[in-house]
Protein 1
Amino acid sequence: MTTKLRIGTGIALVTQRDPIVTAKVVSSIDQLCGGRFLFGVGNGWNQDEIENHGTDFESRHKLARERIEAMKTIWAEEEPEYHGEFVNFDKMKQWPKPAQKPHPPIIVGGASLCRAARDPLRRRLDSRATTGWRRDGIGVVIDQFRKMATEAGRDPATLPDQHLPRARQDRRACASARRSASTASSSPCRRRRKTSILPILDRWAELQRQLNGE
């Protein structure tokens, strides 16, 4: 129905998902939407929920890193295999591969700078999704993210900062995010009838034209 709109997860808790199954799901969605999928991931904060999935709360960041590494291997190789502390599988085959090469952008979600952002996981991420309720401002989060990217040997200019969930249809709020160097905003689009969704999309389009001075 569309040619430009992107679809993404906000967010997929990789600490609570099997990496082989998740890799298959991501590939399938990316194929179905013509390479417009954004893979938003997170490590989780709800200890009870995480432990109900059989994950140790204290080691969840390392688990998330291994699962992301394993999925990237599955997407990139014809006969992938992975051997880590938490994730282990011998040579296997899985299709389809994602439409985007080598895989959809992997965007880490969260307003706080958890330990996951300081370990080698940051070398494998394509962007950072930040929420809008930081009392010290979204710019603080973005500055910290860029500093960590530099420390990890990544060029911050190649990692677009995303100000993703809960964007309001408000010109002042969007202009503020843009001044903070956020390169993109998005808003949850709940399941509604076409008669409700189309006016919402029209208002976003008009807001974009206003911000671009058109």
Protein 2
Amino acid sequence: MSTKVCIITTVHPPFDTRIFHKQAKTLARAGYEVVLIAQHDREEVVDGVRIIPLPKPRNRLSRMFGLTWKALRIALKQKASVYHFHDPELLIVGALLKLFTKAKVVYDVHEDYKTSILQKKYIPKLFRYILAYFLRGLEISLSPLFVLILAERYYKEFFPKGILILNYPDLDLLQKIRAPSSLSKSLSKKTPRLIYAGGITMDRGALIQAQLVRSIPGLHVFLIGRCSEKLCAYLQEMVKDKLQYLHLKVDPVHVPYTRIVEYYAVGGWIAGVALFPPSQHYIRKELTKLFEYMAFGIPVVCSSFPAWREIVEGNQCGLCVNPLNPEEIASAIKWLINHPDEAKRMGENGRRAVEKKYNWNKEAKKLLGLYKRLL
């Protein structure tokens, strides 16, 4: 009988790239019986992973104080050998699973939640600080109960015993996804175009990236990801004189990863951009999108944060710029347009770097090695 692993998330969609496509499928292929508890509309088995659905909550409060306990009840029924949870709001659930079962409990730390909360402007400032420091204290105080997996290198500063399993691209998955012919035909390779993929928010450079259509004549900018209706309307109004050059491919809830990859696979991109304004939350992160651009041979134009420069300039796969200097950004993009051979070499350098060191195959071995030691 195979060993059962129960993966729990109340926040992420069931087919989240890290949780489902990388970790759950890796464990299933290795022979583990994998159950995933997540928000979904039905129970089903996909790629060897059994998904047990949680209902969609009405709001954040009902998710944090209602859905978590429903997830706990379902998890206890699984009688798993390992419980692997992915959200800080499940910390108490994880502690209870440790207390009431003989299973190993894994906490997968995706984010620096302290700095993430501190930059959420919709939360009142005083409550923002209280919540951020409370959550960091709760994580640290409960962490001895869990085996910790860390998605970023610098999280070692808070969790020195954590195991790094980084969020690098799964090349096997990417190679299986092809751009639909309708999409390929709709995007002319003669038109200079940039791509940004991921959450579309002000703190992720939405304003900076949208304004690029005004900087370079004829430049098309594709922003693909989740975006609020209010922000989309603001971006469209901001560039209404150049609206035909700004392509917002958005979903208010979640853009499937496969859809994003289909755009990557079209090819012909001048660059993949990540022009984030400076913030404590992003300045040290190794953005997954950088490695995805590199995996598809797309040159990178990104903010000149030290961690990002180490990846991009260290592998000679793009250009780093001051995100608050529009002239410098425009100059970098024009240089790539006017030097196609050098841009192509940058793309090739990025692809080789991912094949050699920034790939999920290496991280999957670490994940399987960890599970082998646990069991």
